[in-house]
Structures are given as structure tokens and as C-alpha cells.
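Q: Here's a chain of 81 amino acids. Please give me its 3D structure as C-alpha cells.
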Amino acid sequence: MDDYTRKFNAAKEKDEEIHHILTSVYTALEEKGYNPINQLVGYILSEDPTYITNHRQARTLIRKLDRDELLQVLLRSYLSE
């Protein structure tokens, strides 16, 4: 048995989950011929799931995310660049 303490970074894992979901939704929207940025902005502003296609279960995926958490991750990412 090792005596090392392991750190668990829940925030980093949540950010990675959000990134994975956004990437998947973006790809699904693109495959269906939509403008992914416009559709995602519409969804974020209204929280209306009809902005997101059902293709590849993108609508189910995006609804797993809390809008406030999503905005926080997007802002952190944008401002860190």
C-alpha cells in the first residue's frame, strides 16, 4: 500500500467534462449543417433546448450542463488566453 496522498481536482474534471460535451454538441450541429456558434449562443441565452439538434444525442448532452457553470468555464477559458 502506498502512503501518498492523492489530490482530487473536481473543478478540473468538471471543466474537462464541459469541454467534451461542448465539442460533441458543436460537431453534431456542424454535421447537421447548422452554424454551431449561433445555435449555442441561442441555447445559452434562452436555455431553449430546441436550439440544439438531437443528432448524436447532442440535446441530451447539453442539458446535463448547468448554464451558470457553462458560462463560468467559457469566460475562464476566454480570459486566460
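Q: Can you summarize the key feature?
A: The two ends are 41 Å apart (CA to CA).
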